[in-house]
Records
---
Amino acid sequence: MSDLHKYDAIAIDGPAASGKSTAARRLAKELGLIMVNSGEMYRTVALAVVQNEVDPSESVAVVNLLEEIDLHCAVEKGHSVVILEGTHPGEALRSDAVNAVVSQVAAVPEVRNLLVAAQRELLNLGDLVMEGRDIGSVVFPDTPYKIYIEASEEVRNQRRRAEGQVDEVSSRDRQDAERKNSPLVVAEGAQVIDSSELSIEEVVEAALALLRDRGWFERKGESATP
């Protein structure tokens, strides 16, 4: 990030079930940073779409709903939270119904514009580890701390099934990569980590190595070997 910014963002992107959420949580805990799961924000809007029986393919209807619901982002105990109508939705965000529509909802430009602005605002609160699908490419394109975590489709499908999810990652991949607004890409300057045959500890160590190489610890006045 530019020296004009008081705080910095570590951007972690990747497809569904690549391991980026777990890696981001571990990295944030290791470094004592705010952890932001941007996907939960899109899932919260998708949940509102499901609950209000709005057709996710009707972008005007989705935008109208967005103007009606009470949705805001905050940080609690070092983690970002999204509050919908006064409560955190919890496990409802992982439902099959939400999985089925979240990519469509996330493709609506007005949804992305609103949530990207909210994600950027969180940087005013402290250094962040933010994971998602367009963090390094759109939300924080100037950060030098960019990581893209991937894994084979077979491994990712296995992980989804182990979590009790029935959706195939190939469908999500296609929708996320082909959307016109903020598609899933490897951001310029991002280090790619293939987690297919790595433990989460090895993925986090690779991320820490990137931070050491790019001067994170010197900038923060910390040891390079946390």
Note: The chain has a mean pLDDT of 92.
---
Amino acid sequence: MPEDTSATSQVALAWRQYRLERRLFWRNPSAAFFNLGVPLLFFALFGAIFAGDQDALNILVPGIAGMSIVSTTFTALAHNMVALREQGVLKRIRGTPLPGGTYLAGLALHAITNTVVQIAIVLVIGRLVFDVDGLRDPTALVVFVVVGVVCFASLGVAFSHLIPSSDAAPAYVNAVFLPLIFVSGVFYDPAKAPGFLVDIAEILPLVHLVEGLRGAMVTGAGVADEAGSLAVLAVWTAFGVVFAVRGFSWEARRA
């Protein structure tokens, strides 16, 4: 029988792959912890430090939301794509009847699900524990979450092309992730940082994602009010997509 390439079939295959990725994810406690637990651990620690300081909490909650997006997209995909490439999984998938795009769609849906779960947890904790509404502008929140996911997912895949092996992946990813979250005002008001750090942060995408989320979750600023932040994120997204596609390889690198 000829292979069914209809849209319905592709969606069904992507859904199956997504369900498989969810099962594999929960069978790996360390992956679940680093994807979902680390941002919440920072949330608990800094929430305890800033307890009673509402201004600081108004900065922390959207900051953790932005950090969660980076953790579940950029960090997770950079790790996973290197592992799948170097272990030969991508090459084997390429040789099966499962379309490559369908397989990657399942991976993407898995990352998106983790992001949605993280954002939901942050919203609930922020409202119940830290008195941060989180839904001052739901439309702006959805827009910045979607743009943030696309931006950092593409950057994660693009960055995976620079990582030579699975063993090196944690060092490479943390060398970007940790400075990024501390420079970008996840835990503090970036305007109060030294001038050179402010200048660096303004170039990077995370500070603009956090600013957009802060407007949506705390101040009620709409999408139009944060158009500048969206523009910066769009530029980084275009950069990420171009290099994610250009550098993608189904085969492991030769030593």
Note: Residues 32 and 199 are 34 Å apart (CA to CA).
---
Amino acid sequence: MLACAVVAAATPVRAQTVQVRPSDGTVYRSLADTSRIPSLREALARDPADRARILDLANAQVAARQFREAIATYTAALERTPNDALLLRWRGHRYLAVREFTRARDDLERASDLAPELYGAWFHLGLARFFLADFDAAADAFRKARSLASSPSERAGCVDWLWGALMRAGRGEDADRVLQEPREAAAPADAYERRLALYRGSLSPDAVLSPSDTSSVRRATLAHGVGQWSLIRGDTVSARRWFERSRATDAWPSFGFIAAELELARLSAR
């Protein structure tokens, strides 16, 4: 036992690594390795084909915001099993965090072709397409994801992004119908449910974010929702302010933050 402890203590802790360099000069870095990552890496090295060990290591890397390292873990595994839909789904998901949207889309399209009932492949494919401003195609993916969602919270997320994709594609009537379709609502505190309440007009923009919303991911998600609603209404001043609130959090891997970042770049390019 003492020998094992000495080996663990001697295992070097990797420094924070650069994950994303946005065009404004900001640098987003990972956290340092947790104590679990070296042991999980060693376990995978003993059995590189064990999918459970692949996912355990990648999940630990993601928890430390080591998205590029997780992508490398999936890539090494996919060299052995290139048609593993689940690994493609997860690698595509992680490509979103590092802003490699085309690679994300390609992985997720392959995953959804290989496993058409894989909810996560379709939902994240919708996000990849949305981030690439391919809004009609994003709407198609979110519709499919909604049909496969297994919980009210998942369906709320699908409806939220589907509404946004349809509105951005100039399909306002279709978007309105989506909001009116019956479904089991998620909990009122669910971030996407609250955004949907704003879109339906049952919640004011100033009431979307509250002092109790302390999670950085939640704040980034809610602020992006208000920004998107403002942008669709043509109020670019308010939209910019809300997108900046989203980006002011430290939730840089979250979807609301990423979308706000992209919208701010588009507004600045006008």
Note: Residues 211-270 form one domain.
